[in-house]
Design brief:
Layout (H helix, E strand, L loop, with lengths): L1 E6 L9 H17 L3 E4 L5 H11 L3 E6 L11 E4 L4 H10 L3 E5 L3 H12 L4 E4 L4 H5 L18 E4 L2 H14 L1
Parallel strand pairs: 1-2, 1-5, 2-3, 3-4, 5-6, 6-7
Helix pairs in contact: 1-2, 3-4
């Protein structure tokens, strides 16, 4: 499957990214070993860490970049959108089968909403902070962002639960 990976940008050696860096690396490693292609914003923060994990474990990682940014050193392919951060997020979401969210600020919130609007399942990796945990407070029936119930928003508390959800989504394709 093509998986969008979203979450905190910023310095990988400072919180909040530093506090979840090992977890993010394990997620990326797992996605690579499960032969998923990972799409991300391609820059710093969790995007850098997941790209490194994917690359070091034989997977493929594609960066959907804002403006004309170069992206991190671990990307296999880059898409220089020429667009700002929020607009490039729509290209990322349109390009994937599902989205995994870890922490994140307003850009992550935009990507979660965009994924839902495009009927792309979202897996919220719980207890990672930011909008990944905040959005849960708004869910209808603990799994939808609005009354149209267009696509399920899943919650995973560990990598094993994430894998179970991805297997279920892959079987539904």
């Amino acid at each position: 499957m093509k998986i969008g990976f979203i979450g905190y940008s910023g310095n990988i050696n400072a919180d909040p990214v530093l506090g979840i860096s090992e977890y993010v690396y394990e997620i990326g490693k797992n996605l690579a070993l499960s032969q998923h292609t990972v799409f991300s914003g391609g820059r710093d923060g969790v995007m850098d860490i997941v790209s490194k994990a994917v690359k070091e474990n034989g997977g493929k990682c594609i960066g959907v970049l804002p403006w004309e940014n170069e992206g991190n050193e671990y990307l296999d392919y880059t898409i220089k959108t020429g667009l700002d951060f929020s607009m490039r997020s729509y290209i990322l979401v349109k390009s994937v089968d599902a989205v995994i969210s870890v922490g994140g600020e307003i850009g992550t919130a935009i990507e979660i909403l965009a994924a839902y609007a495009e009927k792309k399942p979202v897996i919220l990796m719980r207890n990672t902070g930011g909008w990944t945990d905040k959005v849960v407070l708004t869910l209808i029936e603990n799994k939808y962002l609005d009354n149209r119930k267009m696509v399920e928003i899943y919650q995973a508390y560990n990598i094993e639960e994430m894998n179970d959800i991805l297997r279920k989504l892959g079987a539904e394709k």
